[in-house]
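Lab notebook page, bench 4
Experiment: in silico fold of construct C2
Operator: M.H.
Input chain length: 57 residues
Purpose: comparison with the prior construct
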Amino acid sequence: MRELTYVLATVVLVVLWLGSASIFTGIAFWGFTVVLVVVQLAILVYAVRDVRRRNEN
């Protein structure tokens, strides 16, 4: 179930990014892109730690 949550969060971020292409322009678009990439990396790190923790138990 947790894996599904991570996948859904990633899909939501991709949809937000694609939608932002028509809303933001120039530097605002790239700033928003950087924010989404950082959030995605945080989700990835949390997911990897979660899987490792469950494999140890």
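Observations: The mean pLDDT is 85. DSSP finds two helices and no strands in the chain.
Next step: discuss at group meeting.
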